[in-house]
Amino acid sequence: MAKTVSKPANTMRSRYDAVLLDIDGTLVDSNGAHAAAWSDAFATHGRYHPPEQIRPLIGKGGDKLLRELASLDDESGEGQKIAEARVEIFRTRYLPALKPTTGAAAFVEWLLENRLTVVVATSAKDDEVKALLTICGGQALVKDATTSDDAERSKPDPDILVAALEKSGSTPDRAIMIGDTPYDIEAASRAGLATIAFRCGGWDDATLQGAIAIYDHPRQLLDRLGESPFYATTS
User: Fold this and answer.
1) pLDDT (tens digit, 9 = 90+) per residue, 158-209?
2) Which superfamily is assigned to 13-30+99-232 in CATH?
3) Residue 86 to residues 17, 111, 205, Cα–Cα distance (Å)
């Protein structure tokens, strides 16, 4: 039997008008796959960086990952070739097997049903976003996605969040970021936004401590909506 999602009472007023939403690790269980794809891409150029070394950097923009891990520029020479190889390897080897995080599709449905303005805010490239959103039932969100192509600097710089907030038409006090990495939290904080974090991306509470609330996955947030940051208690 399908589990019933608990919903807050109608008398409770939403604190937020807009949700800025990450995908990788938040709606799709893809962080490990991204680390593996980067490792494979480095290997095609004779560089050894195992997935476990790369995994803590997933969530940052690829340009920052290349620079911090291998001192490479993503727009020239070897760095560009590795970045391009990573895209193809991820698309062909790993993307077809990816699954949504627990409750992701139901969470997207809840967001849309409650008429919240939802803007995807991700370090992923445009050509990956549509495929990832299809996995978690978020095809309707593609048109409002803000990606690394819309920002000069990638996460944890705040550019993507600033662009997403502008697209939402909301203000920082009426918008909330939902993500799964410390880089989401840092980027949101620098944009003046609070963050709800999910552990399903692979980080523990200590690394997610800047979030105003932490849940295992989208399903757990849905099950606890009445006590979540989405709803303010009324006196």
Assistant:
1) 999 999 999 999 999 999 999 999 999 999 999 999 999 999 999 999 999 9
2) HAD superfamily/HAD-like (3.40.50.1000)
3) 36, 32, 29
